[in-house]
Amino acid sequence: MRIAVLSDTHGLLRPEVMEIVNTCDVILHGGDINTQKIADELSKEKRLYIVRVNNDKEWEEHIPVSLRFELDGIGFYMVHNKKEIPLDLTGVDVVVFGHSHKYLEERKDGRLFLNPGSCGKRRFNQEITMAVLELKGGEIEVQRIDISHTEPAIHAPREKDIRKTVENISKGMKKGETIKYMAEKYGCNAIAIQCWNALQGEIGIMPCAANSLLNEEGISVVCETDIHGAITALLAEAAGMDQARTFFADWTVRHPDNENGELLQHCGPWPISVAKEKPSIGYPLAFDHPGAIEAEAKHGDMTLCRFDGDNGEYSLLLGNAKGVEGPYTKGTYVWVEVENLKRLEAKLVEGPYIHHCVGIHKDVVPVLYEACKYIGVKPDLYDPIEEQVKAYLRGE
Q: Between β-strands 26-29 and 300-310, what pairing exists: parallel, antiparallel or unpaired?
């Protein structure tokens, strides 16, 4: 029996992949499918075993998160994330997973652990891979398949979609309805945009790359119509005195290995100067529309802050962090380390702060702390450094 093993297609089924699939008897897909069309096409001719991610879309609700099955007397277990592999693997000979986009083939405790990598949309310089298993008389042979990547780094819509998009943008520009024009017309220094899903429905693109360029110019653009986020960005930009650009991020998940580490991420609106590598334009995780910047931000020391309030009482959460190494993810992102993550998390949980913050690669904590005196806002340091900040401001 010949088995095609693939994962993380993210809405793209390459012709080269289908050529290999058509030589196989069974298909195993390790999740992050992205579209119903992919699942339908794979299951047309071949028997398909597929798992989904816990937060996949509604159409995938019927697809299991994990699977146990047997092929030619060989026991299989499938799950998307390696961290969710159970301890009890009785009767399992092959464990298939995905998620990391990196090919892995190892034998441990008499079992084969296989991550076929990603054969969907390419991320940065990552390889495009899948695998083929041959089952012969109880033996398992593994063949790694490397697929050439000749497509450009920027993923564009089809030609007819490009024409339609350009026409719609041109119409908007003739009416003076560009984001920058509107900001200038009304004398605005910051913008809180409904980044999803209005523009996707109107012109078929994400606004993230446009937001990135505006942020690079010093016109702060934040997502999800977050007014307090826009105010936070203005404060941090002013404190930075045009020496560094700010970036608007979600607090997301803890670092897998660093107890004081956290992932800051957003679909792709961060200014280009923040990136530590050459950015590309791709598709954000939750959408099928292009136009999101993809790049990891540079590391180093930074300030994190968040202006928020409740019942007329306003405060500014602020403190220091530093960029650290961590797993790849989509969009614009950086893993950061703080002095005490649990102390910071308590601030976020107890409020009034929501899930967004603003970062800047510069220590502006003392400046923001001092500014709070004059704008009637309470400074809320997430580390116990108030006396150090006061000493700095006194010139000690």
A: unpaired
53 contacts 66 by C-beta, under 8 angstroms: no
Residue 152 has pLDDT above 80, yes or no: no
Across all residues in the chain, what is the average pLDDT? Answer: 87
**Strands of 94-96's sheet in order across:** 66-71, 74-79, 94-96, 111-115, 104-108
Q: Are 35 and 57 in contact (CB under 8 A)?
A: no
If one compares 381 and 160, the residue with the highest pLDDT of the two is: 381
Do residues 46 and 27 touch, judged by C-beta distance below 8 A?
yes
Residue pair 28/282 in contact by the 8 Å Cβ criterion: no
What is residue 393's DSSP assignment?
A: H
Q: What is the mean pLDDT of residues 152-172?
A: 48
Contact 276, 269 (CB under 8 A): no
Measuring CA to CA, how many Å separate 338 from each of 72, 343, 385, 390?
A: 51, 10, 13, 20
The CA distance from 293 to 208, in Å, is 7
pLDDT band (50, 70, 90) for residue 162: very low
Dihedral angle of Cα 6, 149, 267, 293, to the nearest 10 degrees: 180
pLDDT value at residue 174: 45
SS3 content of the chain, % helix, strand, coil (to 5): 25, 30, 40
Nearest partner of 385 among 371, 367, 366, 370, judged by Cα: 366
Closest CA to 357 of 340, 324, 380: 380
Beta strand 74-79 with 94-96 is parallel
Residue among 318, 325, 316, 319 at smallest CA distance from 297: 325
pLDDT band at 268 (very low <50, low <70, confident <90, very high): confident
Q: How many Cα atoms occupy the beta-carbon half-sphere of 362 within 13 Å?
A: 18
For 106, 110, 260, 350, the CA distances from 306, given in Å and listed in that order, are: 44, 51, 19, 14
Q: Which positions ≥6 away from 177 have C-beta within 8 Å? A: none
Whether 265 has a pLDDT exceeding 80, the answer reads yes
Assign 32 a pLDDT band (cuts: 50, 70, 90).
Answer: confident
Burial of 313 (0-12, 13-18, 19+ CB in 10 A): exposed
52: left (phi over 0), alpha (psi -120 to 50) or beta: beta
Backbone angles phi, psi at 143, to 5 degrees: -120, 120
